[in-house]
Amino acid sequence: MYKAAFLVLVIMFLVCIWRNMGRVLMNAVIRCLFCLICVYLCNGMIQYCGGNIAVKINEITVCVSTLLGISGVAGLYVLQLFFTIHG
């Protein structure tokens, strides 16, 4: 009896996760693209204003900006500024 109830609960859990998986993936893709556009525009604006700080777009910056959003993008620029000054 307990095994059947456990099996039903596991199946219900998997169905709920499967339904939301598309929404979660779409949200991550949208955040990733938005943050990449943000980094690209910020790099362009900084260079236009005469600055020498540029965050490179690679796997790590994509992951950080996707997970943390705009605050992650700002953090990337702060870290780049720190390492440019002390490097």
UniProtKB/TrEMBL annotation:
Q: Which organism is it from?
A: Jutongia huaianensis
Give UniProt keywords alphabetically.
Answer: Membrane, Transmembrane, Transmembrane helix
Report whether Transmembrane shows up as a keyword of the record.
yes
Identification of the protein by name? Pro-sigmaK processing inhibitor BofA family protein
Q: Which InterPro entries match?
A: BofA (IPR010001)
**Membrane-spanning segments:** 5-22, 28-48, 60-83
Taxonomy of origin reads: Bacteria, Bacillati, Bacillota, Clostridia, Lachnospirales
